[in-house]
Amino acid sequence: MTRNIIKPSIEIAKKIADELRVTVDYLIGGSTSMVLDKKLLKRIENIEALPEEEKEKIYYFIDLAITYNKTRKAYSR
Question: Where would you tag: which of 2, 25, 29, 34 has the fewest CB atoms within 10 A of its CB?
Answer without folding.
Answer: 2
